[in-house]
Each structure stands twice: as C-alpha cells, then as structure tokens.
C-alpha cells in the first residue's frame, strides 16, 4: 500500500457511512404512512401555545406550505383569535415548517385542516359516525378523546380507547 | 481591564434579566391595579370596578355564540373545557389557580383573544377590570 492510502480509504469509508445515514433519513422522511410513530420533533413554545386550546398537533401532519398559511392567519384561526406575539409566531412557524410533512398529495390551495388530508381520512376511515358525534369526542380536533397518549406525541394503536 | 469589563457585562446581563422577569411577574391585585391605571387614563368619568357587573359580563353572551362561561363554566373556581375542541382548561379564579393573571403578557394575550371571540372586539379597561374584580371575589 502506498503511504497515505489508508487515510484515503478511511475518508471514503466515513463519506459512505455519512451517505448511508443521510439516505436512511431521506427514506424515513419519504415514508408517509407511519403516522403512529410521530412526532420526534418537539418545541416548548409550540407545546405551550398550540397545546393551550387543543393537542399540539405534530408538525409532520401538514406540509410546510399549510403551516405557513395557517401561521399567517392566527387572528382568524378556524373562528377563533389565536394571535401570538410576533416573536412567538416566528419561532413556532419556523419549527412547524422545518419539521413539516411531505406535500406530494397537496393540490392547489394548501390544506389547513388536518382532517381534510388524505392521510387523516385513510387512518380514520373505520371510525363510525356515532363516535365522532359522541359528546365525549365532540370534535375530530380532540385527538386525546381516543388517543389517550396524544399529549406525549404517542398516537399508536395500543393507546387508543374509543369512548362509549 | 478586559476581565473587569467582562464581569461588569455579566452583572449587567444578570440585572437586565432579573428586571425583565420582575416586569412580567405580578400578583392578581397588581394586575387589577394596572388595569385600573389604564381605566383612569382612558375613561374621564371612571368610578371604579364592579364585581357584580363583571359577573354578569362573564356569564352573558355579547352578540356572539360564546360567553366567557362557555369555556370557563359558570364557576370560575372549577376546571373548564374549550367549547370547540373539548380541551380541558384550568380554573380561572386566582384563588383556585395561583398562576392566573401572574404574567402580564399572558393576561393581555388572553384578554385580546377571548374578547375578540366573545365580543368581536377587544375589551375596554372597564370590562377587563370588572371581570378581574369578580374573579378576585371568588374563594376556592
């Protein structure tokens, strides 16, 4: 072996390892069907501010363009004034957009309601109408009515208890 | 020389930090005093706050679907529930929840939002003071 070759090989090995790691991240990001394993991303201000009125919805449930549109109209947030101080709005907006989901299903105007995404509808297509109308559920915004560990970001099957 | 400068800088940062903390923290009585100060400056014939008026204001609707009580319930010493999302809301009366009205910015934020939802406009200092005066009469 020529002098310096082993260092050269070492560099290639590190580069390949890095590429592998990046590819597995890219792959994980591409996987649209694992709603139950979200969210890795958390932010204290997002948790406090969004979580004051509803479960702080995981950023990956909407694409970045949806979060951007939503954060631009907080003073008219689905019929409520949810306006924030400008600094808080910037921090939460950046957090949501950075950790947003894929937008490959989006068409035309950005979807603002998570319930209107194809992902949400597919995941909940077995939920009967009477469950949505149950006063203990009240609204599909009330994730925690059935997802008992929604507050901690766990939407897995084992945590689901549908109220009767 | 540089060390002295650094120490002074640290002291300055610490003092500024403490000042900003004390500016935000307040007791509910201090919150009421600050709203009273606002009222005295903006209402020429200001005659003080009324807990009774505040209670009526709290429990009535004001042209919109929601009242304060829609989410905070008719008993502000009890936990409430968001009228739309069902999310639980901690008690509003300071006697039941010491964190209420303790942060000036938070208080202003919620008055702004909730008044817009309930009245379709921001509240006057009179309205805010009456409601806080009412909430301060509630014993746990």
Structure, described:
The complex is a heterodimer of chains A (164) and B (140). Chain A folds into 2 domains: 83 residues, no CATH class; 39 residues, no CATH class. Helices cover 40% and strands 0% of the residues of chain A. Chain A is built from 6 helices and no strands. Chain B is globular and about 65 Å long. Chain B is mostly helical and 140 residues long. Chain B has a single domain, classed as Cytochrome Bc1 Complex, Chain D, domain 2 (Orthogonal Bundle), CATH 1.10.760.10. The chains are: A mainly alpha (164), B mainly alpha (140). Chain A: Pfam families: DHC.
SSE map:
The complex is a heterodimer of chains A (164) and B (140).
Chain A: H1 5-30, H2 44-50, H3 64-71, H4 86-98, H5 118-123, H6 129-133
Helix pairs in contact in A: 3-4
Chain B: H1 2-24, H2 28-42, H3 51-59, H4 68-72, E1 80-81, E2 88-89, H5 104-119, H6 125-137
Antiparallel strand pairs in B: 1-2
Domains counted in the coordinates of chain A: how many? 2
Largest interface chains and counts: A-B, 20 and 12 residues
Gap from first CA to last CA of chain B: 57 Å
Average pLDDT, all residues of chain B: 90
- Assign the CATH topology of chain B: Cytochrome Bc1 Complex, Chain D, domain 2
Secondary structure: helix percent of chain A: 25-40%
Strand content of chain B: under 5%
- Helical fraction of chain B: 55-70%
> What is the CATH top level name of chain B?
Mainly Alpha
Q: What general outline of chain A do the C-alpha atoms trace?
A: globular
- The overall pLDDT of chain A, averaged over residues, is 83
Structure class of chain A = mainly alpha
Oligomer: heterodimer
Q: What fraction of the residues of chain A are assigned to beta strands by DSSP?
A: under 5%
Contiguous uncertain segments of 5+ residues of chain A: 20-35
Keywords (chain A): Signal
Protein name (chain A): Cytochrome C
Signal peptide (chain A): 1-28
Organism (chain A): Sideroxyarcus emersonii
């Amino acid at each position: 072996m020529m002098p310096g070759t082993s260092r050269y090989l070492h560099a290639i090995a590190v580069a390949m390892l890095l590429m592998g790691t990046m590819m597995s991240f890219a792959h994980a990001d591409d996987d649209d069907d694992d709603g139950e394993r979200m969210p890795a991303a958390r932010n204290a201000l997002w948790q406090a501010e969004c979580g004051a009125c509803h479960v702080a919805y995981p950023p990956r449930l909407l694409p970045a363009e949806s979060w951007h549109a939503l954060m631009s109209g907080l003073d008219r947030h689905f019929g409520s004034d949810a306006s924030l101080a400008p600094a808080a709005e910037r921090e939460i907006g950046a957090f949501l957009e950075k950790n947003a989901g894929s937008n490959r299903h989006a068409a035309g105007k950005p979807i603002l309601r998570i319930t209107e995404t194809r992902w949400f509808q597919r995941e909940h297509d077995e939920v009967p109408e009477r469950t949505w109308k149950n006063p203990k559920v009240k609204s599909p915004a009330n994730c925690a009515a059935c997802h008992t560990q929604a507050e901690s970001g766990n939407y897995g099957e084992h945590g689901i208890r549908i109220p009767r | 020389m540089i060390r002295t400068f650094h120490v002074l800088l640290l002291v300055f940062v610490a003092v500024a930090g403490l000042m900003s903390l004390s500016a935000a923290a307040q007791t509910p009585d201090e919150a009421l005093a600050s709203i009273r100060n606002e009222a005295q400056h903006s209402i020429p014939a200001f005659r003080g706050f009324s807990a009774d008026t505040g209670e009526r204001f709290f429990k009535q609707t004001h042209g919109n679907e929601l009242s304060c009580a829609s989410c905070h319930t008719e008993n502000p010493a009890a936990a409430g529930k968001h009228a739309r999302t069902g999310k639980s809301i901690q008690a509003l009366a300071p006697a039941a929840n010491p964190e209420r009205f303790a942060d000036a910015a938070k208080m202003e934020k919620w008055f702004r939002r909730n008044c817009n939802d309930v009245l379709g406009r921001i509240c006057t200092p009179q309205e805010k003071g009456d409601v806080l005066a009412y909430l301060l009469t509630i014993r746990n």
